[in-house]
Design goal:
By secondary structure, this protein is of the alpha+beta class. The protein is about 25% helix and about 30% strand. Helix 1 runs parallel beside helix 4 and helix 3 packs antiparallel against helix 4.
């Protein structure tokens, strides 16, 4: 930040931006899932959470990470050879045999449509050399995405434990991973293409064996705008699900962990519908921007400039510079009807001369629930030269000539 004497900022005020109060539907109650999240896919903001940061096993929802890593790493037409480890994976499995060769792209459909455990291992070993190395890549990617409490051990989500803990995540982290898959990854379109496919057939490379896969994500037919999703189940994890829906330019992600055990397979669909309907009924985009600041607030943003030359008094050392918002266009934010945004101005105690017009001298932060959801720069509206003998000379020289 040009010309700032110190990094300590003064909070010059918090202004609440009023939002017309409207009746809202109550938050979802009586969810079956032990952990649940409803997330805004555009911002990554958690709109509703139930034990959303509690670490739990996530079963085959793991495979969304396996899929997106494979899409980002594999070469076009790349193949993989089945190892004894891959062929020995437990059900649910494709039934590959040691020594067979498969196109990795084909195995992604077996992975995501049928949730085959052996397909995941073939992919992992082919791309990284071993399941352990691939798991390291999964964990590295999770950290890049912003996951704080996720630990991958296997590419298929089978219950596992190592020296660092169990194979597990949180509902919030799981939602963030799916957000990456559909919003941020360079292969997001390919991810959606795979996970939205209803039926897929393929053969091994030799053409001797053929396979057919059907998509088991029932959510795709449950609600208008359903985008993608992945189910999961293990004895430790229970039924799990992560899915996304898009309607009216809004995209929501639901993540569920521990959503019932055998005998209650449909609990995850009930919870998913309840959370999605809550999001659709209560959240809409609103425009937020500097127009929402109090009238005249910017005019009051004057920052002292130490050792600055006062343009109106050449003998005076020290002056002020006015600050105003740069690029003050509004931005959109998905908000509940009764939520309010706060506008906070941050400026330094003082600036050091010289200051050029257009230099950033602070910022305006927009806060929701105490968290920053947007900002714009505050820039100097005029230049201020440093006070020195040269400044005084140039200011007085015209007067000297006029006096001759």
């Amino acid at each position: 930040m040009a010309g700032i004497a110190g990094m300590l900022f003064l909070l010059t005020g918090i202004i609440r931006i009023p939002v017309q109060a409207e009746e809202t539907s109550g938050e979802p109650e009586n969810l079956y899932a032990r952990s649940a999240v409803l997330m805004d896919a555009d911002s990554g903001r958690v709109l509703f959470g139930k034990e959303e940061q509690v670490v739990r096993p996530m079963a085959s929802t793991t495979k969304i990470m396996t899929c997106i890593l494979a899409l980002e790493e594999m070469e076009e037409g790349e193949t993989g050879t089945v190892s004894a480890n891959a062929a020995g994976q437990p059900k649910v499995r494709l039934g590959v045999k040691e020594g067979e060769e498969y196109r990795l792209e084909d195995l992604l459909y077996a992975l995501m449509l049928e949730s085959y455990n052996d397909s995941a291992v073939v992919i992992a070993e082919s791309l990284s050399g071993s399941v352990e190395e691939f798991a390291d890549q999964m964990n590295e990617k999770a950290r890049e995405i912003g996951c704080r409490d996720t630990h991958f051990i296997t590419p298929n989500g089978l219950d596992a434990e190592d020296a660092e803990g169990v194979h597990a995540t949180t509902a919030e982290d799981l939602a963030l991973i799916l957000r990456y898959c559909i919003r941020e990854s360079p292969e997001k379109e390919a991810f959606l293409a795979v996970t939205q496919t209803r039926d897929y057939t393929f053969t091994d490379v030799s053409g001797k064996r053929s396979f057919s896969c059907q998509n088991h994500n029932a959510f795709l037919d449950m609600m208008e705008g359903a985008l993608t999703g992945k189910t999961g189940f293990t004895a430790d994890a229970g039924y799990c699900y992560v899915g996304a829906l898009s309607q009216d330019d809004r995209t929501f992600i639901v993540a569920l962990l521990g959503c019932g055990w055998p005998g209650h397979k449909n609990y995850k669909w009930e919870d998913t519908r309840k959370l999605m309907e809550y999001g659709l009924a209560n959240y809409a985009y609103r425009k937020i921007g500097t127009d929402d600041m109090k009238a005249g607030q910017e005019d009051s943003l004057k920052i002292p400039v130490e050792n600055g030359a006062d343009p109106e008094d050449p003998y005076k050392r020290g002056t002020v510079v006015r600050a105003s918002a740069k690029d003050p266009e509004s931005f959109r934010l998905l908000m509940r009807k009764d939520e309010k945004v706060e506008c906070r101005t941050e400026i330094p105690d003082a600036l050091a001369a010289p200051v050029k017009r257009g230099d950033q001298v602070g910022k305006i932060c927009f806060l929701l629930d105490g968290k920053e959801v947007g900002s714009c720069k505050l820039t100097a509206r005029e230049s201020v030269e440093a006070y020195d003998l040269g400044t005084v000379y140039h200011a007085l020289f015209p007067e000297f000539l006029l006096g001759q």
